[in-house]
Amino acid sequence: MAKKEKKVKGKITKLELSFTILSLIFLIGFTCFYGYRLIHYYRIYNPKTVTGEKTELMGVTIRKNTPVIYEGDGLYSIKGTFVYKGDVDNNYVSYSNLLWRIVKINNDNSILLITDEYVNNLMWDDNSNDYNSSNIRDWLVENGNNTGIFEKTLRNKEKYLQPNTICKDTVNDLESFSCNQTSNDDYVSLLNLNDYINSLSDGTSYINHSNNIWLSTPTSDNMVWHVLENNVSKSTPDNGYAIKPVITLQKTAVIQSGSGTINEPYIFEEETEQQLNTYSYVKLANDIWRVYEKNDNHARLILDNYYGSEYNTYNFSPIDNKFNTNINYSLAKYLNTTVYNSLTYKHLLVECDWYTGEYTKTNEYNYKNVFSNKISAKVGTYNVSDIKLNSSLSNYFFMTPADNGMIYSFNNDENLFTSKITYIKRIRPAICIDKTKIVKGNGTKNSPYELEV
Question: Which residues in 110-142 are b (16+ Cβ under 10 Å) and which e?
Answer without folding.
Answer: bbbbbbbbbbbbbbbbbebbebeebbbbbbbbb
